[in-house]
Specification:
Layout (H helix, E strand, L loop, with lengths): L2 H12 L10 H4 L2 H10 L1 H5 L4 E4 L7 E5 L4 H13 L5 E5 L4 E3 L4 E3 L3 H9 L2 E5 L2 H5 L5 H8 L3 E9 L2 E12 L1 H11 L10 E2 L5 E10 L3 H9 L4 E6 L7 H13 L6 E4 L2 H11 L1 H7 L3 E4 L8
Parallel strand pairs: 2-3, 2-13, 3-6, 10-11, 11-12
Antiparallel strand pairs: 1-6, 4-5, 7-8, 8-10, 9-12
């Protein structure tokens, strides 16, 4: 398949030109990583930070779906492409950079791996805010579906769209719901650091995939009357500056909330759309697609 044609279809479907994240990513990635990115993806860095990031092939016959471009994930893709002679492939990623949830936070793809992607004709397409806010295929719609939410409505404005939904499930005990949440996000359990049981049965749920440590999101969910707030992580881990700061914020905000809180992991809450919804989109476009899991959802 001609890569240009596929990229145009993606750009149009997700309306990527209206989602400008140039004010966000350069501020959360180490400056040295930005310098490396400029060497490989100058137009992307100078643009909106959504769309085609690495243009390494003219023709592609396989798409790899990933949440974060961690080293293990990219090594897996490189090995699969080497096995078949590297004829041309595209990575469709939710993020333009890696994320160490329990470590250093956001990190750029290393220069060596960027070289290997170029050498082996593997392009890279980023769809961050567009995939969070799309009306048909989004991170939050995928999560709402597997949790079987009904009567759900969008909330939490984000780049002109909505990044959250709130809706209802049949009245369920908190422990059973936590087990269900782990099951549908391919986790063996929910970590104790992401569990706060506030004595509420689970019926009215707010969903914010990814980072859910924004007090505004929590307060919106409370004001909507939600009894349970589900996200990727509401208690930031890691030793990076933002995580340290937000833990202090959460210490003051959380005790004032009447809701139960549950967090899977940043990765686990956003991989559902890649596992369940995006494969069908690419198959309908006529191209082979593979979802590549992150080995450690909490790393």
């Amino acid at each position: 398949m001609n890569q240009f044609d596929l990229v145009n279809r993606l750009d149009t479907y997700f309306n990527v030109q209206v989602f400008d994240e140039s004010g966000f990513w350069p501020n959360v990635i180490p400056p040295g990583d930005i310098t490396v990115y400029r060497s490989f993806a100058e137009d992307f860095v100078q643009g909106t930070w959504n769309g085609l990031m690495l243009n390494n092939a003219d023709e592609i016959d396989r798409v790899y779906l990933v949440v974060f471009p961690g080293q293990a994930v990219l090594d897996t893709i490189l090995a699969l492409e080497l096995e078949r002679g590297a004829p041309g492939a595209l990575i469709f990623a939710h993020h333009p950079v890696d994320f160490e949830e329990s470590g250093r936070g956001f990190l750029g793809i290393g220069e060596v791996q960027l070289e290997e992607l170029r050498e082996h004709h593997i392009s890279y397409y980023c769809c961050h805010a567009p995939l969070d806010c799309h009306a048909e295929i989004s991170t939050v719609i995928a999560l709402a579906r597997v949790l079987k939410l009904h009567d759900w409505q969008p909330f939490s404005p984000h780049h002109g769209g909505m990044e959250g939904v709130h809706g209802r499930v049949h009245d369920m005990a908190f422990g059973r719901f936590a087990e269900l949440l782990a099951e549908v996000t391919d986790l063996p359990y929910i970590r104790y650091t992401q569990v706060r049981f506030n004595g509420q049965p689970v019926e009215h749920i707010a969903l914010i995939p990814g980072g859910g440590d924004n007090p505004q999101h929590l307060e919106e969910a409370r004001d909507l009357g939600c009894d349970t707030y589900v996200t990727g992580m509401w208690w930031p881990l890691g030793n990076y500056e933002y995580a340290v700061h937000q833990r202090e914020v959460m210490r003051s905000v959380v005790p004032q909330l009447p809701m139960n809180l549950l967090g899977t992991s940043h990765y686990a809450s956003e991989m559902v759309v890649m596992r369940d919804l995006m494969p069908g989109w690419f198959r309908n476009a006529g191209i082979e697609v593979k979802f590549i899991k992150q080995p450690d959802p909490w790393r």
